[in-house]
Design goal:
6 helices, 85% helix, mainly alpha
């Protein structure tokens, strides 16, 4: 019976280590998806000249994962609620932030972009998108550094802490 408990402890702590390591790699993937979404938005703004909700609906159909829901939520709020683009963007991002691995600093970059969304001509909007892309590139580089430094460590820490607990209990 002790061995079953020991295996359960090792499995549980190992799972926690792998879970935290997975969140590090998810953050990098999510930041890449945001960069892709903003690049697509730049193309939509510059060439198709669709209304904002249509542009975001089109972009969301091209993307997979949680970002898809965020962009669809933003487009839906623009159509159905009496909100400004800034308010709808902030609401959609706050709902999205609850379910994903991005950090507060990543969210701040996106919220800062939302301050100007839909308020300028297409050339000024393009400059704002490029600025947000630069900030997201910086955040992505930080996420990659963090992932390379801490991913393996968190996996090993999970396994080794489970072994330590088992040794202490036996």
């Amino acid at each position: 019976m002790k061995w079953i408990g020991a295996l359960f402890i090792i499995f549980s702590t190992s799972w926690l280590g792998f879970y935290f390591a997975g969140r590090l790699s998810e953050r990098t993937k999510e930041l890449r998806a945001w960069k892709l979404a903003l690049q697509s938005l730049e193309a939509e703004v510059m060439y198709s000249q669709l209304p904002l909700q249509e542009a975001f609906r089109r972009i969301s159909s091209q993307l997979k994962g949680p970002i898809n829901g965020c962009l669809q939520d933003f487009a839906f709020q623009l159509e159905t609620c009496a909100l400004t683009a800034k308010e709808a963007w902030e609401n959609a991002l706050r709902n999205y932030f609850k379910t994903v691995s991005i950090k507060e600093s990543d969210l701040q970059v996106l919220l800062q972009f939302g301050e100007t969304i839909g308020m300028h001509d297409k050339y000024s909007q393009q400059k704002q998108i490029i600025l947000a892309l630069k900030h997201l590139e910086r955040e992505e580089q930080e996420a990659l550094d963090s992932q390379s430094n801490y991913e393996r460590m968190s996996k090993m820490l999970g396994v080794l802490s489970g072994i330590l607990i088992v040794i202490l209990l036996l």
